[in-house]
Amino acid sequence: MENGLKHNDNIVNYGIITSVRGSIVDVEFENNLPSIYSVLHTGKDNQIVIEVLTQLGSQRIRGIALNPTQGLARGMRVETTGKELTVPVGKNIMGRMFDVFGNSIDHLEPVSNVEQRNIHQPPPPLGTRSTKSECFETGIKAIDVLVPLERGGKAGLFGGAGVGKTVLLTEMIHNMVGHNKGISMFCGIGERCREGQELYEEMKKQMC
Ligand SMILES: Nc1ncnc2c1ncn2[C@@H]1O[C@H](COP(=O)(O)OP(=O)(O)OP(=O)(O)O)[C@@H](O)[C@H]1O
Ligand SMILES: [Mg+2]
């Protein structure tokens, strides 16, 4: 490596932003390119967080900004952290709300006794996965009869605005907890974070 330095993620390194397109940010480094999935900080108070997604050649990386990029411009300084994003996991996070960085955002006490785990994890090994196909009962007859879901599978719900997607999801979450003693997790992206808040308030009301 240049200057005889070994690539070391623990050394703070600085780069310069070369392009900003929406949330996609390119950063140039003279040496010690940060590794993929590592986190960079930039912005006025270092409040903008960028996750490295690709290395474009030996001096440039392309990353995605995880918060709004207003005010971000070419030529701004970027600082490496050498760390990757982690989130709290475990029983103590149940019923709580977090942002993408794992910080609690429900104005309650900070979560304690939790393990911090990297957001990038390998999939479970094939040997531990179920090989049989089972129906996952949602308790909603129209779904269970006409379009049954597979246990352990994935399903998408598409529809026009205001046709009842959220109501259906809420009903499924309700049944999951009530009938199956299961766990549901809601992730909102962008503007849809608002729905997480609404769901949280709704669930809290029902619990009281
Ligand atoms: N099964 C239903 N029976 C009667 N009314 C319903 C039903 N499902 C939804 N609605 C009504 O439709 C309204 C919109 O539903 P919902 O918010 O679930 O739509 P959405 O598809 O999530 O909309 P958006 O695309 O805006 O997120 C609800 O406020 C509710 O009043
Ligand atoms: Mg909706």
Strands in their spatial order, largest beta sheet:
1-2-5-4-3-6
Mean pLDDT: 88
Strand content: 25-35%
Query: Could you give the distance between the termini?
Result: 61 Å
Q: In DSSP terms, counting alpha (H) and pi (I) runs of 4 or more, how many helices?
A: 3
Tally the beta strands: 10
| Class by alpha and beta content | alpha+beta
Q: What Rg, in angstroms, do the CA atoms define? A: 21 Å
Order of helices and strands: EEEEEEEEEHEHH
How would you characterize the overall build of this protein?
With 208 residues, this protein is of the alpha+beta class. Helices cover 18% and strands 26% of the residues. The chain folds into three domains: 12-84, Thrombin, subunit H; 86-120, no CATH class; 132-208, no CATH class. The strands form three sheets. A six-stranded antiparallel beta barrel has the order 1-2-5-4-3-6. β4 and β5 form a beta hairpin. The N and C termini lie far apart (61 Å). The site of magnesium ion (MG) has 3 residues, from α2.
Layout of helices and strands:
Blueprint: E1 14-21, E2 24-29, E3 38-42, E4 48-56, E5 60-65, E6 77-84, E7 86-89, E8 115-118, E9 135-136, H1 141-146, E10 149-150, H2 165-180, H3 193-207
Antiparallel strand pairs: 1-2, 1-6, 2-5, 3-4, 3-6, 4-5, 7-8, 9-10
Bound molecules: adenosine-5'-triphosphate and magnesium ion (MG).
